[in-house]
Amino acid sequence: MTIAPSTETDETPKPVTPDGATRSAWASLRPLVLRLHFYAGVLVAPFLLVAALTGGLYAASFQIEKIVYADEMTVAKVGDEKLPISEQVAAARKAHPEGTVAAVRPSPADDATTRVMLSGVEGVDETGTLAVFVDPYTAEVRGALEQYGATGALPLRTWIDKLHANLHLGETGRLYSELAASWLWVISAGGLVLWFGRRRAQRKVRGTSGRRRTLGLHGTVGVWAAAGFFFLSATGLTWSAYAGANIDVLRTELRQATPAISAAAGDHGGHDAGAAEGGAAAEGDLDKILAAARAEGLGDPVEIVPPADASSAYVVKQVQRSWPTKQDAVAVDPSTAEVTDTLRFADFPVLAKLTRWGIDAHTGVLFGLVNQLLLIALAASLVLLILWGYRMWWQRGRASAFGRPIPRGAWQQVPPQILVPALAVVAVLGYFVPLLGIPLAAFIAVDVVLGEIAHRKGKRTYGDRTEAKRSAEQGAE
């Protein structure tokens, strides 16, 4: 990549005054923020670009899924009365006797089918289930599709989800998305600081051209989208591999972890013993189990999870993640249909609620279509910002070359009373967010080494020129 020298611009860090005059905190920090924003943008932008494109596609996948799988997800004709859940499950098992019943989601709407999820089915990923779709009015099986995750993602959305999360590269691929989430807020914060540090007259877009116009567009869109970027970064880190683990530990120590319902139900003899061998309790029990949950106020949509073994209860839980959130759950004794434990979303710790809402908003389910459109708009904004950022770098150069990178040594201009606390904050953040700390440390190390090499090369070059000059003078004598 060719890098050409460029003329002085308002983006170029100003040198330290030789007379040691007092400089404002902002004047000291600006070159450092500019250098960090520039290099982080250039190096991390490819990861952010992939995350933005795949994330926008995932936000659209909810509506695409409804179209692609309309036959399975909806009934052919709405009837007068829905059949008992036990009959619907029996129809699903007759059509698909393989595997065991892992969960049942009764039809949540008049035109929606019931889903009977089967685990241990050959050819289905062990992390997913085979969802059998049953017409609740006729018990007709309308199809079967592989399903993944708590949101009930079907094959198309599952594929897009994994593309966004790990590029279909498994746990190793998750590093890309965590890197993007770790740096998105840093780049956004740096952009905000630089933008509001500019004079008001330099922020306008109208009447400008060239690099000045690109900078205006980049800054204006970045300011409007910054809050969304901070949100996506924070919520994305909550279930990332490394930072997410640290967040979970912190929540646990603060007693803010998501509570779990107790599924213990005692000893029920032969009834549950036989059920455990089949992987689920007797399917005729489902109707009274559901009735007990309804009596506790659990409205649709719900999921019924059969007992795991002879000493366990059914768990019926609400699965509505759209607003208003419905996440209540009850455990029901299979022999008596009595509720043995209750878990209300209203009783969740504050951070557990915020985590739930944050993840659901990040994935586009909290506010439905509006949420999804907003995510698509944020993704488009991020793509434009990246393209404008690279364009500005190109416009700083000459002919067919990128502009000169921001000069090193900006940290030397920062007063110690500002630099030391800032480094302490960066060290703490780097510890809790490793894919922010490790790349930043690597960049600083490489930058220091390159700076030392350039310094020594400059000294050698200066020494060689001095020696040559002396030799020429002696020859002339």
Structural notes for this entry:
The chain has 477 residues and is an alpha+beta fold. Helices cover 54% and strands 9% of the residues. It contains 13 helices and eight strands. The strands form two sheets. A four-stranded antiparallel sheet has the order 1-2-3-4. Strand 7 and strand 8 form a beta hairpin. Helix 1 crosses helix 11. 33% of the residues are buried. The N terminus and C terminus are likely disordered. It comes from Streptomyces neyagawaensis. This is PepSY-associated TM helix domain-containing protein. Keywords: Membrane, Transmembrane, Transmembrane helix.
Summary of the model, kept short:
Residues 82-143 form the PepSY domain. By secondary structure, this protein is α+β, with helices and mostly antiparallel strands. The protein is built from 13 helices and eight strands.
List keywords for this structure.
alpha+beta, four-stranded antiparallel sheet, disordered C terminus, about 475 residues
